[in-house]
Write a structure and sequence with these properties.
- By secondary structure, this protein is an alpha+beta fold.
- 55% of the residues lie in helices and 20% in strands.
- The strands form 2 sheets. The protein has a 5-stranded antiparallel sheet. It has a 5-stranded antiparallel sheet with strand order 7-6-10-9-8, sandwiched between helices.
- A hairpin with a 5-residue loop joins strand 6 and strand 7.
- The mean pLDDT is 80.
């Protein structure tokens, strides 16, 4: 496992743990608070019908705090605290401006979560607006608020209790997933290396090796396609090799010399006949035409064909020893590259035969000229009358 993979794994783990913490802090906490709010509201509804006379309210709050586990506060319609389970009601300030009291005044129930300056803790407060008959005028009633509150410490403790098991189980699952992923990536890497080794051998021209993956996956399909491509490539290379061998055999057995030059004047191909004709005994590969030909007339022919971009043929006396019929033709090579193809025909023997024919004709004409002159003189003598002179 490389450094990048380890870094990614650590980042994924941190991201999952952070996501889990956010989930616990937001959703689970909200769920607990909703349940606590509903529970406090139910208890408040029950307690409103059990409220005693004013002088016994403090005792009532303290008694039922032990049963409900919540702090109980009874507040008059004007905001005066009538009784409280934790503090002396006479010492407590007016509660009419508390958020939960304001909400209960409008809708009958109210709740809020805030920090208690008295106890230095976060509390949830639930208040309901209640009504009971007053002890004064007939058919009259008085309104009051019953407020229950509980610290949120228990929620935090409950979340803390479930946090570690969830985090531990998550980490265990992650370790298992990473182990499986590591084994899978290890096998994947091995298969990839097999494919890379296979393609490297193909690049080196070795088609004898084959790659077969046991499991049917996208990678095995890729390996199958590469294998098929390798077989096709091998077949094409065999065809190219045969064609190349055929061309080489043709060039080797050509009596005429052949020279192919690229646009920069460098030799691409020269056959053995031309090497023999020019008296060369080295490969000539990557040499320039000037280094190969070393003849002003041949170079002039080559340059003229290049400039006019047409085929030019000319008889050239090479070094005063051989007579050559040279043809220079522009040609399009691979990749739209222009080049020159030159063919060399050794016509030295033909030239010699032609000279022998001319010399023979001249000699025959010279030898026949004297008898013909004599015969012509005899004929003229006979015409002049000698034919009648028998002596």
């Amino acid at each position: 496992m490389n450094k990048r993979t380890i870094t990614c794994s650590v980042l994924i783990t941190i991201l999952l743990v952070v996501s889990l913490e956010i989930y616990l802090s937001l959703f689970v906490k909200e769920h607990y608070i909703s349940q606590m709010r509903a529970d406090l509201l139910t208890k408040a509804v029950i307690l409103k019908d059990m409220l005693p006379e004013k002088r016994n309210i403090n005792n009532f709050c303290k008694t039922y705090k032990e049963k409900t586990g919540a702090r109980i506060t009874v507040i008059s319609e004007t905001g005066k605290v009538l009784g409280d389970s934790d503090e002396s009601s006479s010492k407590m300030e007016n509660h009419l401006n508390r958020p939960e009291i304001k909400e209960a005044m409008l809708s009958g129930t109210g709740s809020s979560i805030r920090f208690s300056n008295t106890l230095k803790k976060d509390f949830i407060y639930v208040a309901i607006l209640a009504e009971r008959p007053s002890g004064g005028e007939r058919n009259s009633s008085e309104k009051f608020f019953i407020r229950l509150s509980m610290p949120l410490d228990r929620i935090k403790a409950d979340i803390s209790r479930i946090r570690m098991p969830i985090i531990i189980s998550t980490l265990v699952v992650l370790v298992g997933v990473f182990f499986i992923w590591f084994q899978r990536s290890k096998r994947l890497r091995r298969e990839v290396m097999e494919i890379i080794e296979f393609t490297d051998r193909i690049a080196q021209g070795d088609f004898s090796n084959r790659v077969f993956l046991a499991e049917e996956t996208e990678l095995s399909r890729l390996a199958g396609h590469i294998l098929h491509m390798a077989e096709e490539l091998q077949s094409r290379l065999e065809e190219v090799k045969k064609e190349k061998q055929t061309v080489e055999n043709v060039l080797k057995n050509m009596k005429e010399g052949l020279l192919i030059i690229d646009k920069n004047g460098r030799v691409l191909l020269i056959n053995d006949s031309l090497k023999e004709l020019l008296g060369l005994n080295h490969t000539c590969r990557d040499l320039t035409a000037t280094e190969i030909l070393r003849d002003a007339e041949l170079l002039s022919l080559l340059e003229g064909s290049r400039l006019v971009n047409e085929t030019i043929s000319r008889e050239i006396s090479f070094k005063g020893e051989k007579d050559l019929l040279v043809t220079s033709s522009p040609v399009e090579l691979s990749g739209n590259e222009r080049g020159i193809v030159m063919t060399f025909h050794n016509i030295t023997r033909l030239k010699r035969l032609e000279q022998i024919r001319r010399d023979f004709v001249a000699n025959v004409a010279h030898e026949i000229k004297t008898p013909i002159t004599a015969i012509k003189g005899f004929a003229e003598t006979l015409i002049d009358g000698a034919i009648e002179d028998k002596e």
